[in-house]
Amino acid sequence: MITLTMAQEIISAALGHARASTMPPMTVAVLDAGGHLIAFAREDRSSLLREKIARGKAMGALNMGVGSRSLVERAEGHPHFFGAITQLAEGELVPVPGGVLVRDEAGEIIGAVGVSGAVPDADEQCAIVGIRSQGLVADAGA
Amino acid sequence: MITLTMAQEIISAALGHARASTMPPMTVAVLDAGGHLIAFAREDRSSLLREKIARGKAMGALNMGVGSRSLVERAEGHPHFFGAITQLAEGELVPVPGGVLVRDEAGEIIGAVGVSGAVPDADEQCAIVGIRSQGLVADAGA
Amino acid sequence: MITLTMAQEIISAALGHARASTMPPMTVAVLDAGGHLIAFAREDRSSLLREKIARGKAMGALNMGVGSRSLVERAEGHPHFFGAITQLAEGELVPVPGGVLVRDEAGEIIGAVGVSGAVPDADEQCAIVGIRSQGLVADAGA
Amino acid sequence: MITLTMAQEIISAALGHARASTMPPMTVAVLDAGGHLIAFAREDRSSLLREKIARGKAMGALNMGVGSRSLVERAEGHPHFFGAITQLAEGELVPVPGGVLVRDEAGEIIGAVGVSGAVPDADEQCAIVGIRSQGLVADAGA
């Protein structure tokens, strides 16, 4: 499992990466395997919907069992199906990079990290840096 | 009507088919004619939204009175109408194969089976195998 | 974790207990630690709200970290507080016996079983019988 | 305003107080003046509804402009009115101590801290310790 201490260090590493770059204000959410929030941080001046976007990316990854990058192609290829299941998910199925599954050594999903604030590739990179800082496997999708 | 015993055997046959193939973890829901859940199984490591997708396929079939395969063409041909009724259905109108009506000898709808986890054609095949194992008629749509 | 096989055997033992008694038609839900449905069974002629009641008992136990029997006193002693958090839980906080936590040997919560159909004490007994059939610890609250 | 750094230190001080006592696993949420989440932490084994309860206490304080302790008397004295506005607030009006307004030197509300996990008086004490650690004024209601 992802402990609170690990989740806080994931956030610290993710935001450290954002600050070492020139990214705008960022929001980071760390969820457990059941989709429940463990830790969260919204940087000063990060806009109002950022919490829901970051969580929607992370929860979308857990909802479908793939990193949110994999959802992009699915949404484009099957828009009606994707529209229906987005409604089933109450929006928590955001098809853009930045929702990254956290796996343990055995490959089991133990949670997910969602990041929002910069361009999607940069958001995803923050999540990956955060997850790897704890010696865990980041599965961003493909 | 579909009894609990029959519903459990439908699930057993559907999952047996999945395990005899190389399908990923599957989720199966059996609904009665009123759309209420009779029996349900989510295989280990089947992702979080699978319950809603499986039920959304089965309920979509009951909602419109056709197997969910028939909903694909309708969604593509009439996207605005389909978007509106998807919202009326609160998402339970998933336009993809895998929601299969169960009919009795007289052709009456007595329930529906929804399957999610693999590609849609494989999902649908699991549902059909399950339904036929009980001597019932599977109506997948066309 | 509770595997699908374990969840199905929990249901089988719980319903076996009900059938060995003179209980009315019963409904049983088995949830994982994150509150997601693993397996479910509704006996023939169990009424329409039973799914939501069984799940609401089990989810209520997970929501508060206590067996649902413990919620009775809280609801009676603090009705306004309980009313507010029931709304936060979207109803999934049913204050009546029959939502029983499943703990492993180390005492960790690994899921919950909810039962509805008979009187609450009998519902709870079905859940306990089911959980213990798998060598797991049943925490019904007090 | 409450910066992210301040919010994280409020959480750290609140949880430090809980750990120096013998409190069960705790959950802490820090909201800005608009009710949006700045930072959040859920300790290991804190149960599933704790996020919503902690936020519901803090948001309830902001919703009515008083610490959540003040809502207890209002709920008891005007149960029908309170029931109606709880529904308007979608439950985010939890009438129990532990939702504490954060005020600046001039007395302006700049956010709120919500804590859940122990008995209400202890929850509230964690929030107060956290807020005061940043030299801010804690308004718990009366």
UniProtKB/TrEMBL annotation, chains A, B, C, D:
Q: Which organism is it from?
A: Subtercola lobariae
> Could you identify this protein by its name?
GlcG protein
Q: Which InterPro entries match?
A: GlcG_carb_metab_protein, PduO/GlcC-like, PduO/GlcC-like_sf
Return the Gene3D superfamilies for the record.
Haem-degrading domain
Top-rank lineage group of the source organism: Bacteria
Pfam families for this protein: HbpS-like (PF03928)
